Amino acid sequence: MTILCLLACSLAYGQTDTLRYVVRGTVLDAQGGRPLGYVSVTLPGTNYATVTNTDGTFVIKSDLPPRFVTFSLLGYKVQTVPADRDQLMRVRLTRGEFTLDPAQVVTGDPLTILRDAIYRIPENCPSEPELFECFYRETAQKRQRFIYVSEAVTKVYKSSFKNLFGRDRTAVEKSRLLNSPRRSDTLAVKVIGGPTQAVDLDLVKTRHLILNEEDLTSYRLEMMDPVMIDDRRQFVIQLIPAMEEEFALQHGVIYIDMETMAFTRIELSLDMSDPEKATRAMLVRKPADIRFKPKEMSLLLNYKREGGKSRLSYVRTVFRFNCDARRRIWNTEFTAIAEMVVTNRFSGVDAVPIERAESFRSSDALADKTQVYADPDFWKDYNIIEPTESLEHALGRLKK
Predict the structure, then answer these.
(1) Distance between CA atoms of 105 and 122, rounded to whole angstroms?
(2) Ramachandran quadrant class, 2 (left: phi over 0; alpha: psi -120 to 50; beta: rest)
(3) Tens of pLDDT along 247-266?
(4) Which positions ≥6 away from 264 have C-beta within 8 Å?
């Protein structure tokens, strides 16, 4: 992802009638009433999905009248309610209580459990290629002020999980870019991620990154208390760096379904104890006169099980760093967030591979190519991640 402020661009909003049925609403905690962010929202019996924003709001669309909407979040009970297209829905989720049968005791060696889950990846994940439609968003803040927003509709091709060297690729179909007109906000820094993160950072598919015997030897694994996700019991394994390596290690938590041994959720946070190593892990490129000081790099991966197979459904990366010109005394803190949600899925003859000439490369910056993919019908009929209230306010300011 690149924080690159160029010329501000404003695209008109369009709408077609393909996905003409829309359900909107807010998801709240039943006990305290606070909005719940990053709740998975799906239409049962379809492949349509989205997530709530940090304000708890969502919008989901369908080509057929939706009858029900399902909501799920770590630590809460899964809830399916009738869809209401006539007014804004208010859904309250209750916290799930984890109970074990008195005869059941959760024990085991975390490394053995993790190895078993890795071994079962080909069994738990799709054996045939699939094509995913996704919504992707990048935002950047200078201190507390938004200076950059880029959004895109993408498609991701995933080969069979039995083939580690398939033609997994990402393509951008359309996008829009809004950024600050202030020259002082112009900063060309590229960190890892971007629209290709659904391919590059899918750790269950790209197991050479961390889920392999060689890398796991660098960590101490500890069993944590089990939890419920989607009303299913989960093993919870904590990763703690256990030795010095030439590269920065991760602090992490891995959730594994107790019954299927499928990966359900992965949370990682880069070890920042050695700034030089952390910089090498985060930074792709920067101008020579810019000082870069890493503060945070975290990754969240959610996997959903459907039809007996687990697939990546949501990715979020967060980068915090101080960055400024060398001639200045004070560094300025920047926060860059990229998130992608799978909104639809195609298989069989509809899972058409993405050709190399069409694919978006990891080295590409969406900000550089937004004009190529600009489309006045950007919103069209795709499911989206609803903007937060502060982001909507920022969009209004940036367009002026």
Answers:
(1) 28
(2) beta
(3) 999 999 999 999 999 999 99
(4) 229, 230, 232, 234, 255, 256, 257, 302, 303, 305, 310
Q: Are residues 309 and 325 in contact, defined by beta-carbon separation less than 8 angstroms?
A: no
**203-240 pLDDT, tens per residue?**
999 888 889 888 999 999 999 999 989 989 999 999 99
Q: Identify residue 66 by its one-letter amino acid code.
A: P
What is the CATH code of the structural domain delimited by 101-382? 2.50.20
Half-sphere exposure of 315 (CA within 13 A, CB side): 24
How far is it, in rounded angstroms, from Cα 267 to Cα 303? 12
Amino acid identity for residue 42 in this structure: T
Model-level pTM greater than 0.90?
no
Query: What residue type is 1 in one-letter code?
Result: M
Task: Please report, for the chain, the start and end positions of each structural domain, with discontinuous segments joined by +.
Answer: 101-382
From the list 364, 370, 325, the residue with the least C-alpha distance to 2 is 364
Annotate the chain with three-state secondary structure: CEECCCCCCCCCCCCCCCCCEEEEEEEEECCCCCECCCCEEECCCCCCEEECCCCCEEEEEECCCCCEEEEECCCECCEEEECCCCCCEEEEECECCCCCCCCCCCCCCHHHHHHHHHHCHHHHCCCCCEEEEEEEEEEEEECCEEEEEEEEEEEEEECCCCCCCCCCEEEEEEEEEEECCCHHHCCCEEECCCCCHHHHCCCCCCCCCCCCHHHHCCEEEEECCCEEECCEEEEEEEEEECCCCCCCCEEEEEEEECCCCCEEEEEEEECCCCHHHHHHHHEEECCCCEEEEEEEEEEEEEEEEECCEEEEEEEEEEEEEEEEECCCCCCEEEEEEEEEEEEEEEEHHHCCCCCHHHCCCCCCCHHHHHHHHECCCCCCCCCECCCCHHHHHHHHHHHC
Which two tokens mark 382? 């795709």
Beta bridge partners of 2: 190
